[in-house]
Design brief:
The complex is a heterodimer. Chain A is of the alpha/beta class. Helices cover 47% and strands 19% of the residues of chain A. Chain A is built from 10 helices and 12 strands. Chain A has helices spanning 19-29, 42-51, 68-77, 96-104, 117-157, 159-175, 179-209, 223-237, 257-273, 325-335; strands at 11-15, 35-39, 54-60, 86-90, 107-112, 219-222, 243-248, 252-255, 279-285, 289-296, 339-342, 351-358. In chain A, strands 2-1-3-4-5 form a 5-stranded parallel β-sheet, sandwiched between helices. A 5-stranded mixed β-sheet of chain A has the order 7-9-10-12-11, covered by helices on one side. The longest helix of chain A has 41 residues, at 117-157. Chain A is elongated. The mean pLDDT of chain A is 86. Chain B is of the alpha/beta class. Chain B has a single domain (5-120), classed as Rossmann fold (3-Layer(aba) Sandwich). In chain B, 41% of the residues lie in helices and 18% in strands. Chain B has 5 helices and 5 strands, in the order βαβαβαβαβα. Chain B has helices spanning 13-25, 36-45, 63-72, 91-95, 107-120; strands spanning 5-9, 29-33, 51-54, 81-85, 99-102. In chain B, helix 2 runs parallel beside helix 3 (63-72). The mean pLDDT of chain B is 87. The chains are: A alpha/beta, B alpha/beta. The A-B interface holds A 155-156, 159-168, 170-171, 174, 192-193, 196, 215, 217, 233, 258, 363 and B 12, 14-15, 17-19, 21-22, 25, 57, 86-89, 91, 94, 100, 102-108.
């Protein structure tokens, strides 16, 4: 199921065993600007049917070997062409019972040669329009189905196994004392959580791709608790990393704690992965908002500044993620009425991101 | 002190077992159900649990339908519910339960939440 433009040319199949007739048809229909496909026999027409999705078939009745009626009957056997409109063209079989035979095979029209070019062109144009409308409808429906599939399968079905993996690993860790077993369980847990973050990032990306905002459930929360909780989680799964948390002022507000943790967490994970020394997280309460600044000693690559918040960023060779972390962090900040900035100067020996969270965002 | 009992409802057998094991490890008595309908059957037939831990997306009777029924039964309406879900929930749903936790959950947090709900006892009022 590709993403096709509704305006893309549609395909019309013209079937006639006389090249001169095909030429006449082509000259008549060319002004429509659609794609014209020619077949010199019923058999060739059937091959073309297999290869293309057709808007319309123009079919000569009198042909050697397979005639038009036989060809039409075979076209109808084909799943892809069961509903494709067929117009019969005939010079010789002018009696009405032939026309009736054609119509009984599902032909939408029966036109006698020599045809009036303008009339034929108008007829074909109306079938092309019908086909376009149908195609647009089908494509809109399948986009919606795809959305439900992605959000449903990724969001729920893939995350359930991760839930069982993490819970079981953490449960075993409670009573495990042997260092190598603890290390193995920690690896299981941290890998599964990393996978879950990527799955969640993809679901969130899919949501924004399909035009929705990231949903937030606002509730009273403390920013230092949100950060502490995430830092504890990262430190338990990445025992070697060092994260310093500082808190100044009143850091209470009304936020979706889980989402804020996801946004700030993306910054912390980036900082940890690109740092040689400690990572600092500063939480500060201002008058109307609380800021969270995440800072490490890595130099931010200048080349990435312009495309910082674009999804699936390329060129960040050191990163192990999908390139969605900053994009989603910004979406979450904006869903809270806040924002996110890269605050360090170009070339500075530190990278510092600041996020701003209004204390009382309006409900999404 | 008598152990509090918890009813865990989840259609994914591995998740169900891991939630059960986490709560057993923390000293709770645990019963399980794989669908909202099974859970409702248990609630009506047997001793009521102190807390329900509930998944939302389930076949047969999902968490939303289950909650609607439970909250409508006077006898069951006061049991506190901790929702454990991988999907984002509508605000109306979160207002009708005590706690919402997202999967994958932290076992310690689940235990802390369930302990708090069990010691608090019945819901304040019914909604």
């Amino acid at each position: 199921m590709g993403r096709r433009s509704v305006d893309e040319p549609v395909k019309i199949l013209m079937v006639d065993d006389h090249p001169a007739n095909l030429l006449a048809l082509e000259a008549t229909l060319e002004p429509l600007g659609e794609t014209l496909i020619q077949a010199r026999s019923g058999r060739q027409a059937l091959r073309e049917i297999e290869r293309h999705e057709l808007a319309l078939v123009l079919l000569d009745v009198r042909m050697a070997d397979l005639d038009g009626f036989e060809t039409a009957a075979l076209i109808r056997q084909h799943d892809r062409a069961r509903e494709t409109p067929i117009i019969f063209l005939s010079a010789i079989h002018t009696e009405t019972h032939y026309a009736r035979q054609g119509l009984s095979l599902g032909a939408v029209d029966y036109i006698y040669k020599p045809f009036d070019p303008d009339l034929l062109r108008d007829k074909v144009r109306s079938f092309v329009t019908l086909h376009r409308e149908r195609r647009a409808r089908v494509s809109a429906e399948s986009a919606l189905e795809m959305k439900d599939l992605i959000l449903g399968v990724l969001g729920h079905d893939l995350r359930s196994p991760v839930t069982a993996i993490c819970a079981s690993a953490e449960l075993l860790l409670k009573d495990e004392t042997a260092p190598e077993r603890r290390a193995a369980l920690t690896r299981i847990n941290s890998s599964a959580r990393r996978m879950d973050r990527m799955v969640r990032a993809l679901v969130d990306y899919a949501r924004t791709y399909f035009g929705s905002r990231i949903p937030t459930l606002l509730a009273p929360a403390r920013m230092d608790h949100i950060c502490r909780r995430f830092i504890d989680e990262i430190e338990s799964t990445h025992p070697s990393c060092a994260i310093e948390l500082s808190v100044v002022g009143n850091v209470e507000g009304n936020w979706d704690a889980d989402r804020v943790a996801q946004a700030v967490g993306n910054l912390i994970i980036n900082a940890v992965e690109h740092a040689s020394g400690a990572v600092r997280v500063d939480v500060a309460g201002g008058a109307d908002e609380v800021t969270v600044t995440v800072c490490n000693d890595g130099t931010f690559p200048d080349a990435l500044r312009a495309s910082l918040f674009e999804p699936f960023r390329k060129g960040d060779a050191g990163s192990r993620g999908l390139g969605l972390g900053l994009f989603i962090a910004r979406e979450i900040a904006e869903a809270h009425g806040g924002r996110i900035e890269l605050a360090s100067a170009a070339g500075a020996p530190q990278t510092r991101f600041t996020t701003y969270w209004p204390r009382h965002p309006r409900a999404a | 002190m008598q152990k509090s009992s918890v009813l865990v409802v989840d259609d994914d057998p591995n998740t169900l077992d891991s939630v059960r094991d986490v709560l057993l490890h923390a000293g709770f008595e645990v019963d399980t159900a794989a669908t909202g309908r099974d859970a409702l059957g248990k609630l009506l037939d047997e001793k009521q649990p102190a807390v329900i831990v509930l998944d939302i997306r389930m076949p047969v009777m999902d968490g939303r339908q289950f909650l609607t029924v439970v909250r409508a039964y006077h006898r069951l309406a006061s049991i506190p519910v901790c929702v454990l879900t991988a999907v984002d929930l509508a605000p109306q749903l979160t207002e009708s339960v005590e706690v919402v936790m997202r999967k994958p959950f932290r076992p310690d947090e689940l235990v802390a939440n369930v302990e708090a709900l069990a010691s608090r006892g019945v819901r304040d009022g019914t909604s």
